[in-house]
């Protein structure tokens, strides 16, 4: 059986396999797929552009970062491959998506992703000052707008 050729991003897609992040750290490149069926869905079109970008950042966090199952080995609810962290610090400092004073906008946008069925909250860390844990959902496929 032949080995699969390792995917190499094109120059218009990436800076290479390794890059320097805004904090000056050397990091490995990750990618996050978005499929056309999702982009054409009603749920996706109902999101604001900032909420859509936040979803893409969540996908980057999902593919390239530490998984909750490594930190919560005894908790079966976070052992799946579809669980991930999306910390405010990463979105604010690393990805420069929100200003320091706009944390409420981040929370609002996360809630929109939950309402539209893209993610669910598995564990809320607010009371213990820990990271929230999210899980991907396919609820967006059957999402219908609220008709008031």
How would you describe the overall organization of this protein?
There is one protein chain. This protein has 148 residues and is α+β, with helices and mostly antiparallel strands. The chain has one domain (35-142). The chain contains 6 helices and 5 strands; from the N terminus they run ββααααβααββ. The chain has helices spanning 36-39, 42-46, 49-64, 68-71, 88-94, 103-115; strands at residues 18-20, 26-28, 83-85, 119-123, 133-136. The strands form 2 sheets. A 3-stranded antiparallel β-sheet has the order 3-5-4. The chain has a two-stranded antiparallel sheet with strand order 1-2. A hairpin with a 5-residue loop joins strand 1 and strand 2 (26-28). Helix 3 packs across helix 6 (103-115). It is globular, with a radius of gyration of 17 Å. The protein starts with 17 loop residues before the first strand and ends in a 12-residue tail after the last strand. The model has no long low-confidence stretch (mean pLDDT 82).
Short description:
The chain has 148 residues and is of the alpha+beta class. It has helices at 36-39, 42-46, 49-64, 68-71, 88-94, 103-115, and strands spanning 18-20, 26-28, 83-85, 119-123, 133-136.
């Amino acid at each position: 059986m032949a080995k699969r050729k390792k995917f190499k991003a094109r120059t218009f897609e990436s800076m290479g396999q390794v890059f320097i992040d805004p904090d000056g750290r050397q990091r490995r490149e990750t990618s996050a797929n978005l499929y056309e069926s999702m982009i054409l869905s009603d749920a996706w079109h109902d999101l604001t552009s900032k909420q859509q970008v936040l979803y893409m950042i969540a996908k980057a966090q999902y593919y390239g970062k530490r998984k909750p199952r490594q930190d919560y080995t005894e908790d079966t609810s976070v052992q799946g491959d579809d669980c991930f962290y999306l910390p405010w610090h990463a979105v604010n400092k690393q990805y420069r998506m929100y200003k320091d004073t706009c944390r409420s906008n981040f929370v609002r946008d996360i809630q929109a992703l939950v309402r539209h069925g893209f993610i669910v909250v598995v564990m809320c860390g607010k009371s213990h000052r820990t990271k929230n844990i999210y899980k991907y959902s396919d609820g967006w496929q059957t999402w219908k707008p609220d008709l008031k």
